[in-house]
Amino acid sequence: MTISQAMHFGSRHVIDGFDFCDSTHCQNLRLNGVTPRLRKIVEETASEILWYDGEPAATYYHANCGGGTEDGRVILGNNEQRAPYLKQHSDTYCTRNGGSQWHSEVSKHELQLALLAEGGDVPGQLRAVAVLQRTRSGRVEFLTVTGSYRITIPGLIFRAAVGHNVGWGQLKSNWYYVRVEGDKVVFHGRGYGHGVGLCQVGAEIMGEEGRSYREILSFCYPGTRLGVSAQGTPWQQLTSEDVVLFTTRPELDHPLLPLANRMMHEAEEKTGLVYNGATKLKVYATVAAFRDATGEPGWVAASTRGCTIHMQPTALPRTAKQRTASRRHFRRRQRPRKGIALSRERAADAPGLRGSTR
Questions:
Q1: Is the pTM of this model over 0.70?
Q2: Which of 156, 181, 182, 252 has CA 20 to 30 A from 29's CA?
């Protein structure tokens, strides 16, 4: 989802000189919450992208939908009218454990100042707040706010005004009922967030019940396809004793498996090192898919990331120069045999011992 979102919204902060911010506006980054289990999940799904109609999907998500998602067109405007996978639909998963209800109070004075800060000038003193219109999901689309006379305010602007100037915890979603009690405006609502796309609480419960990540994404973004390429083709896995080959074109790439095995053994003989475990080799169907997945320029033939060698689509390396370039990546995956001490000179010749290879 993160890669899909980055590809879809890559230019969101171009005017600021960067791509993504680390807030809920783009991608809420919490590195202290990363566990070995999460790292394993990321590695297993690396480079997979959610596609719709040949383009990366707009993978919006939120904390809790309260029992039903919102239609993307209501929240996101005309820019997402080509995103039928962001449809409003019921979601009973997120309500199975309860906890989606919330209550908050804001003083009339606070609310009036908050609206004023966002351009909503309520004449006189604020006296009443009422829901004027709701979306099909039940969320607030328009409200009326009455001072010396009544004005109409879109629900999105109303919530943003409260969030920016009073606190986002005061109005957790646009699914609420509102009334005025004395000098306070009282809200009773459910859910947390805009409600579009994937509900994180619902997805977590689906996972706990044994649903796969593909089933979860299909439920949250109906009509999309998950894969490494724009055609949505999933990875297929070919294995040998020493190498695991991931490909979207097994009929073309299967000859790479014995070649990779041979290169692996040649690298072990020349370096005196051995890699404990199967090397993973991913071969992309197009240069564009390789660039999107690795961030490398098109003239880079391969990229080693952790335990995986990522390769551009290519014919079998038949020339001596091509074989030498391929061996470098296999040599990077070697590790010393237990009990063998390498000299400083020999270690310098082993690329796999020179720190990170990205």
A1: no
A2: 156
